[in-house]
Amino acid sequence: MFALMIFLIGLFTALGTGILAGWSDFKGLTIPNLYSYVIAGAFTVTYILLWLFGRDDVFASLFSHIVGALIVFGVSAAMFAFKSLGAADSKLATAYALWMGVKGLFPFLFYMTLFGGLLGVSAILIRKYKPFESPPEGSWIAHLQAGESKVPYGIAITLGALASFVNLGYFSKDVFVSFLL
């Protein structure tokens, strides 16, 4: 039961911090580095504690998780170099990729891209039609309505992580029951 609590605290810490990152990105197009550190730290602490309790079977091998994070870091760092992605977005995606491992990488990237595409379409529509009379200064919507082409990708990254957590079975009945046996 204690291992289940550790697992859930780790998951909800990662998701809650991602929600804060998405909100920060929406409000001002910035994501504090601390959020990425907390998400990566939550995985590290959760993995180590579950390993100590003999329950690291919930995750893939530690090697798989590290490789997944390195792949995402490499790709997102290249995207940053070409100004296609912000540095904070790269760090946030890398922190979540640590939770996914290689096995969960494709679903994570798929869901993140899907939600990013929806945000992109929303951005185009908001920039074109300017539906908000006086958006808060510095907000994503204010930037769009001023003609800039920016997207708070932290939202897409967090939603992609949530969908991937479900896809990986982190919230499945089988995983929860396995902790009780």
Question: What would you say this structure looks like, in words?
Answer:
With 181 residues, the chain is mainly α. It has one domain. The protein is built from eight helices and no strands.
Helix and strand composition category? mainly alpha
Secondary-structure element pattern, one letter each? HHHHHHHH
Overall shape: elongated
Number of helices: 8
Summarize the entry for a quick read:
Helix content is 75%, strand content 0%. It is built from eight helices and no strands.
Please specify the SSE layout and strand pairing.
Elements: H1 2-28, H2 33-52, H3 62-81, H4 87-100, H5 105-129, H6 140-145, H7 153-167, H8 173-180
Helix pairs in contact: 1-2, 1-7, 2-4, 3-4, 4-7, 5-7
Characteristic key phrases:
181 residues; mainly alpha; 75% helix
